[in-house]
Amino acid sequence: MIENSDIVWMERALQLASLGLGKVQPNPMVGCVIVYKNQIIGEGWHQKYGGAHAEVNAINSVKDKSLLSKSTLYVNLEPCSHFGQTPPCSDLICKHKIARVVIANKDPHEKVNGKGIQQLQSAGIDITVGILADEGIKLNKRFFTYHLLQRPYIFLKWAETKNGFIDIKRDKNPEFYWISNQELKVFSHKLRNEEQAILIGFNTLVNDQPKLTNRLFGSHQPYPFVASNHVLKTPPSPFTIISNEVHQILRELHLRKIQSVIIEGGKKTIQNFIDAGIWDEAIVYTGDQEWEDGLLGPNIDTSNPKIVYKETQISNNVLKHYILESPLKSKFSDFLSHV
Predict the structure, then answer these.
(1) Average pLDDT for 235-254
(2) Rounded to two decimals, what is the model's pTM?
(3) What amino acid positions are annotated as catalytic residues?
(4) Bridge partners (DSSP) listed for residue 105
């Protein structure tokens, strides 16, 4: 039976889970709250890849373990039921005979996928699934996209002038020009800290010689890839050369266990993903400059009803954010439904 308080405690579990952003991939972000008589007696989240899972941290934080058998455990993703880098969380929950477990989403990983729920139910634990399921999918959009769509979650990103140019004409002026302001540069490094990989085209590599590193947030560095049909005897370190065809790029990234990628250019590479209709979010920095000529940026059809678009003014620049409706909700309703 679903209770009004279930939403409140699941919101807290999701809030805790979000603290793992950029720190736990390729694992999902998971938070856990343990409640006894409408009071939190323990909570935790998955803090780093290879570390203890959220349920373990939450149970360990409970001072009086005798209360667990009379408590409700809230977790945004189905407890694992297999041995990986850590033992199964479902075993620990059964060991402490926790009375009720409330879950936002089933885990789509082939080693779990309902097995954790079945184990808990077999142990006589009361199970509720589907509380804030949409929010759970949104939080772990990278993880669900990787496992259910067999590809990474795709961010498109570029900077353009007020009149739509992303680059100068290189034959006229070889110099590099910054288009966006300092605040948006900081945002770029934050994004790099949160995502697993960055991909650029061969021309962007040659013309811009970008570092593609995170230099402002934490220690995480995204894996740099170059999409190219050029065969290089000595690929430029630290870049990995892969195919420049959209579907092949995604196959290769999936095989490398990449759950999220930022496509940073150039125009042709980004437009290929747009034209194929295979992307999830686009982030466009629009500066306050206007150029007489140059290379026009990629084009997104904003009349598409499946695209949500919003603008945010940041000092003298504009941050444009496009979100393409995900096929996850329509194709995989099993991971959103109540049971």
Answers:
(1) 87
(2) 0.90
(3) 55
(4) 77
